[in-house]
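[agent] plan:
  1. take the single chain provided in the ticket
  2. run structure prediction with default settings
  3. attach structure tokens to the ticket
  4. add a short note for the reviewer (M.T.)
[agent] executing step 1
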Amino acid sequence: MGGGESTSSRATTYSDFVRAVENGQVSSATLDGETVSYTGPNDAEFKTIVPGDAQVSDLLVSKGVSVIAKSQETSMFQSVLMSLLPIMLLVGVWIFLYEPHAGWWQRWCDGLW
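[agent] step 2 finished; step 3 output follows
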């Protein structure tokens, strides 16, 4: 399941994947977001990208294919960065606008009041 899976899998079209499922040639499949890795004839490994509107899990279950679903998780670093980015942006704008040495902005604001 580890590194060997990625080196021996071949890319295939979504149409070929559906055809293989309907013909009973797929024994197991792993759903990982928009990517499907599956075992076809002669235990060959294949990968394909699934269109967003496709009902892949329903098709696989109806044909008796063993399905493994993986959740797509973001890294901790990416989650922290995305949650802190708006705060850092607001602080940066605040410092720029209200810093006493802001120059033109400070002079312009002083003229309004």
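[agent] step 4 note for reviewer: Helices lie at 3-8, 14-22, 56-62, 76-98, 104-112.
[agent] ticket updated
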